[in-house]
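Can you make up a polypeptide sequence alongside its tokenized fold?
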Amino acid sequence: MTCQLVVLYYSRHGSTLAVARQIARGIESVSGCEALLRTVEEIHSETESTDPIVQLSELKQCDGLAMGSPVWFGNMAAPLKHFWDQTTALWVAGDLIDKPACLFSSSSSLHGGQETTLQTMMLPLLHHGMMIMGIPYSEPKLHSTSSGGTPYGATTVSSGSGALTSEEIELAQSLGQRLATTALKMKES
């Protein structure tokens, strides 16, 4: 039995993508789980993404979702919000109800709005009936991180290089593992 989890992100400079890749590694470290890295269309841009654009059918069929955005004034980025504004058909049909989800973000400063951005991303998922999970304090790195990582989700403080700290990598992978393990248990029951 294969469990497919969508890792949906928007990334302009690569930091959010770096976290998405670590969450995907965490997901794929769980036997029987596969991560599908997907992004959303850029609004008014000629930039091409390295990953495929998410399709509504992929969300409908997935067993769980990890979603990430850079911090834009304490909110999720507009292209990601624009995508969710077009998911009414999934909402009406109840296609995402009871699927597990987690969140991640990136900012250029430690207090740049990571947690509020994670919270803004929760809102459409709650309306879709998804079950949101964070990072529990049983994760030792959550107690000691001085860069990224919150109980609301995985985060990174971008240095401009796109490189993550060892704490950020560990917390992102742990969150991916938690999502995958939960989705797998739900699929088996």
In short: The helical segments are 15-28, 56-61, 78-84, 88-93, 114-127, 140-144, 166-188. Strands lie at 3-9, 33-39, 64-70, 100-107, 131-132, 154-157. The longest strand covers residues 100-107. Residues 156 and 164 are 7 Å apart (CA to CA).
